[in-house]
Design goal:
Chain lengths: 340, 393
């Protein structure tokens, strides 16, 4: 039993982190950058070239041959850098395509496929026929849209959606639209019983949320060390210090549970549902609370668009909603079998 | 961050670890005490010592202690496996042995002389002695280093005067790990010594202290020392280096033994789910209830608390033990306290009955100590802020 990264895993994480520090600093969203939509899709071919779009697929299917643990570590870095969550569209499309021998596999792995995400607004039907009302994320110029639910995962065409209308997103650097499906047949449908795509998606969302929790903790701590009031760094005051300590506690809890869930998936132990849902709940809680505390530690400047604090908060809310919000996750948590 | 020597992240236990687990499980099944653990007094002392002795005779005492002092000399992972199986078997915790096994013993292993190790370690593992802690004082709680119980050297003895408080089970103990001031002029952390104190020494008197759980529950004592003579050979580490001696092992109170509690609490949450559904009745699903939502979040947080213990164990096994274990301890304390509070809400009006045959109310009241004992959760947060995050003092 070991929760520490191997040298190889550390190298993987370091190489990804240095690529993202260079090409996707969170400051890329600050004004005067365009405030609606993002250009992250331009990075996908390079992320693909680095191998991260198929990191957990076998080499025989064009992947790198690592597992859930390494994929989870990559998504933690994506979260730290607030990479557009539509990258999940590629990771999961590659997984679906590999499962169904779809010709879309290569384009997904190389990052040349454009896939937006869809998330249910209220009750929807997913399966060989999909219908209901959805939000679409970063799907404006994407021919494909991926959606996940407890029943399974579907790759749909954007043209399957009717009544598509753009809306200003709470997280406005992510393009947001409303759309409706009426008895659409997906290009690919994989049932949850065949392949637990939903469990993998939740794990990666949880890892992304850990990245947000870590980045906001670090940002708040850095500020608390440097910002002076009453002649001292504000981090020397217990009121602020304890806010930061709570951020660290939540982050460690979330990281450890996400590692736990990742290893349970990677090694196919019992309790995938239990530990994965727990991971999403704990990690989203950490991301949301840390993002809020980060704003509080920053004071008035945290309330402006001149720091990145608000970007983490808004993204945390988006991640919470994706493919089952915390209310739904709590219901699943209660229903999951307890692994002894 | 690179962790040299680590092969790979995994949840796998080696074949040897698995067979160790099987042996532990089989032994526990065959050897669990059948009688109920008494709640107080000498009967409780006899029970705890007998159960400790049986574990020793079975080869399960001191799994990670060095072999030359009666331990098994195995890894912390094995120690963790033992604790997991112990909790799964619902074995009774011999709380009276806790200080000796998890604090005094490890301190002697780290800093004791050969004679001190020989005199005490195997007696601890064999279940011959109970140890208690003499750290806090009436005016030195969170600010432990301000302690004023004084010891002056006279010949080959120390003469101790003063008072200690919040000494759990002091009235049932044989030995005490005692922190005293041996240099009143030195800066406060540098004039303290760590002593082995015989609780039967002339000049020690005890005042029992009832706790808030229920009437007549004596858990603590206050100790008064009136010219108590302690041989110089009972100083652990150097004179005036007691603070470092104490700090060298405080982490043990926060280490792998935690996993026992965590597994017990995970089972408690499962019981709470059953009880909550039973009380709601079949017409009203728990998933639509406010209590259900809190139980779900608690189930998730309990899982995370256990995952944190795995992280702490992994780091310790790789020689990386550090203040990050305080993150685990803070999370565990808050989560356990929340569980006890929620259990009360499940009971509803019955929470007003502190019944002997149902311990949820008793342990709710008891849970207030979780965020106070061994450093309050506020002190924990200072430690996290300063030593983990590097914030200024």
């Amino acid at each position: 039993m070991n929760f520490l990264l191997s040298d190889e895993q550390t190298q993987i994480v370091d190489s990804l982190a240095s690529f993202l520090n260079d090409r996707a600093p969170v400051s890329r969203f600050r004004p005067p950058a365009p405030q609606i939509g993002n250009a992250d899709r331009e990075l996908w071919p390079q992320v693909g070239e680095l191998g991260f779009l198929g990191i957990a697929l076998p080499e025989s299917q064009g992947g790198i041959g690592f597992g859930a643990a390494e994929e989870m570590l990559a998504y933690r870095e994506f979260g730290r850098h607030l990479l557009s969550p539509s990258i999940l569209g590629l990771t999961l499309t590659a997984r679906l395509a590999a499962k169904t021998d779809s010709p879309l596999l290569e384009a997904a792995l190389t990052g040349h496929l454009r896939v937006g995400l869809a998330n249910a607004r209220g009750s929807v039907r997913l399966g060989g026929e999909c219908s209901g009302d959805f939000h679409l994320f970063d799907a404006k110029d994407a021919p494909w849209v991926l959606v996940c639910g407890e029943a399974g995962a579907a790759l749909l065409r954007r043209s399957d959606f009717s009544e598509v209308a753009a809306v200003l997103g709470t997280d406005h650097v992510i393009g947001l639209e409303r759309g409706r499906l009426a008895a659409a047949s997906p290009e690919i449908w994989v049932d949850a019983a065949t392949e637990p795509v939903q469990a993998r998606a939740q794990l990666l969302l949880a890892a992304y949320a850990v990245g947000i929790a870590e980045a906001t903790r670090d940002m708040a701590v850095e500020y608390a060390k440097n910002r002076q009031q009453f002649g001292k760094p504000i981090g020397s005051f217990q009121a602020v210090k304890h806010l930061c300590a709570d951020m660290a506690i939540r982050t460690e809890a979330a990281l450890c549970q996400v590692i736990f869930a990742g290893l349970i998936q990677a090694e196919e132990h019992a309790g995938v549902d239990f530990h994965t849902v727990a991971a999403k709940l704990v990690a989203v809680d950490a991301a949301l609370k840390n993002a809020a505390s980060n704003i509080q530690v920053h004071g008035a400047i945290g309330f402006t668009a001149e720091t990145d604090a608000h970007s983490y908060l808004k993204r945390a809310h988006l991640i919470e909603q994706l493919w089952g919000d915390s209310r739904q996750q709590r219901q699943r948590m209660l229903a999951a079998a307890f692994p002894d | 961050m690179a962790f040299p020597g680590v092969v790979s992240m995994d949840l796998k236990f080696s074949r040897a670890d698995r067979s160790f687990r099987d042996e532990a499980r089989a032994w526990l099944n065959a050897n669990l005490p059948r009688e109920r653990r008494p709640h107080s007094g000498d009967a409780m002392r006899q029970f705890d010592l007998a159960w400790q002795r049986r574990q020793f005779e079975g080869g399960w005492a001191g799994v990670s202690w060095p072999e030359e002092y009666g331990g098994r000399g195995l890894s912390l992972t094995r120690q963790l496996i033992w604790h997991e199986e112990y909790a799964r078997a619902d074995a009774p915790d011999n709380h009276l042995c806790f200080v000796a096994l998890n604090h005094a013993g490890p301190t002697l292993i780290a800093r004791g002389t050969e004679a001190q190790k020989r005199d005490h370690l195997s007696k601890i593992l064999r279940g011959e002695v109970i140890w208690c802690q003499g750290f806090s004082e009436p005016n030195s709680g969170s600010d432990l280093a301000s302690l004023r119980t004084q010891a002056r050297i006279e010949g080959d003895h120390l003469i101790v005067n003063g008072s200690k408080i919040w000494t759990s089970h002091g009235h049932l103990s044989d030995w005490q790990e005692l922190l005293v001031r041996t240099d009143a002029e030195a800066p406060k952390h540098k004039g303290i010594s760590w002593l082995i104190c015989d609780m039967k020494s002339p000049g020690i008197t005890l005042r029992p202290i009832e706790i808030m759980t229920s009437p007549n529950q004596v858990h603590f004592v206050q100790c008064f020392y009136d010219d108590v003579r302690i041989p110089l050979g009972n100083v652990v580490g150097e004179i005036n280096d007691g603070w470092n001696v104490a700090m060298s092992t405080l982490g043990f109170e926060r280490g792998t033994a935690q996993v026992r509690d965590q597994i017990r609490y995970a089972y408690l949450v499962e019981k709470m789910i059953c009880e909550a559904q039973r009380r709601l009745g079949s017409d009203s699903p728990l998933s639509n209830d406010e209590i259900g939502a809190r139980l779900a979040q608690l189930r998730a947080d309990m899982a995370a608390a256990r995952a944190m213990t795995y992280m702490v164990t992994s780091r310790a096994d790789a020689g990386l033990q550090d203040s990050r274990s305080s993150l685990m301890r803070a999370m565990v304390g808050d989560t356990q306290q929340r569980a006890r509070r929620l259990a009360l809400d499940i009971l509803g009006p019955d929470a007003l009955e502190n019944r002997e045959d149902d311990d949820w109310v008793y342990y709710y009241l008891r849970s207030f100590s979780i965020t106070i004992a061994a450093g309050t959760s506020q002190i924990q947060r200072n430690i996290i802020g300063e030593r983990v995050l590097g914030l200024p003092r």
